[in-house]
Amino acid sequence: MSGLFISFEGIDGAGKSTHIDATAKAFQAQGRVVTLTREPGGTPLAERLRQMVLNDSMDAMTEALLVFAARRDHVQQVIVPALARGDVVLCDRFSDATFAYQGGGRGFDWQVLQVLEQWVQGSGLGEAQALVKPDVTVWFDLPPAVAATRLAGARIPDKFESQPIAFFENVAAGYARRQAEDPQRFARINAHQTPDAVWRDVQGALRQAGHLRA
Ligand SMILES: Nc1ncnc2c1ncn2[C@@H]1O[C@H](COP(=O)(O)OP(=O)(O)O)[C@@H](O)[C@H]1O
Ligand SMILES: Cc1cn([C@H]2C[C@H](O)[C@@H](COP(=O)(O)OP(=O)(O)O)O2)c(=O)[nH]c1=O
């Protein structure tokens, strides 16, 4: 695959959405074709699963299976073809969110998630082979109390956004664990700054990794 796969992660309200469009424009300005997508979602089927995951109450295993089912469709229908064309794929959340939210936040078994990741992002045949995973993950790291203040009044909270701060402390711990397991992939951004400063750091991280030209 000749494309570039970048995911954007962080707790709700960390500032991902604010910077994804700017990242897309920066790559387009360098002549790259950008596929902008999100999870759960990115295909008609996965968007239907998204509605269930975000609105219906269910146990953590059901949630994990639904987000991975959505991811399977998204990887096959959108991400793999885009990378094969040479696109820059910018994805608003990917598997790290499952480890953070279903693993860290909801307490679902980390090892089971790792097995699902191998199956869903591999060949699906259980064979050892390269996984479809981001080249870079931009992690917007923000204290949950600050994120809660930003979100208050900004939009109607969905099932996750209405969780207490303690839930997001566990989600953040899940992200930290994922970073510790694969530190090279992560660009951890201090999101507790002005939007301009955060954007400067996002650009800096993508330049340092050799993906954006100065
Ligand atoms: N650096 C920042 N400082 C203050 N407020 C911010 C900052 N970045 C984003 N916001 C605001 O915080 C809210 C959540 O940002 P958003 O980008 O939607 O977060 P996410 O996509 O990570 O949930 C929005 O109202 C946005 O305008
Ligand atoms: C991708 C993914 C998202 N989520 C959650 C995290 C978010 O709260 C929600 C998706 O919301 P998000 O992408 O942040 O959308 P918006 O900014 O429009 O609210 O789904 C999971 O619980 N597991 C996952 O695997």
- Name the helix and strand elements from N-terminus to C-terminus, one letter apiece: EHEHHEHHEHHEH
Query: Strand content of the residues, in percent?
Result: 5-15%
Number of strands: 5
Distance between the termini: 25 Å
Estimated helix fraction: 40-55%
Give the strand line-up of the largest sheet.
Answer: 2-3-1-4-5
Mean pLDDT: 94
GO molecular function: dTMP kinase activity
Protein name: Thymidylate kinase
Organism: Rhodoferax saidenbachensis
Binding site for ATP: 10-17
Give structural notes.
The protein has 214 residues and is of the alpha/beta class. Helices cover 53% and strands 13% of the residues. The protein has a 5-stranded parallel sheet with strand order 2-3-1-4-5, with helices on both faces. Helix 3 packs parallel to helix 5. The radius of gyration is 16 Å and the shape is globular. The model has no long low-confidence stretch (mean pLDDT 94). Thymidine-5'-diphosphate binds next to helix 4.
Q: How does the SSE layout of this entry go?
A:
Elements: E1 4-9, H1 16-29, E2 34-38, H2 44-55, H3 60-85, E3 88-92, H4 95-105, H5 110-121, E4 136-141, H6 144-151, H7 165-181, E5 186-190, H8 195-208
Parallel strand pairs: 1-3, 1-4, 2-3, 4-5
Helix pairs in contact: 1-8, 2-3, 3-4, 3-5, 4-7
Bound molecules: adenosine-5'-diphosphate and thymidine-5'-diphosphate.
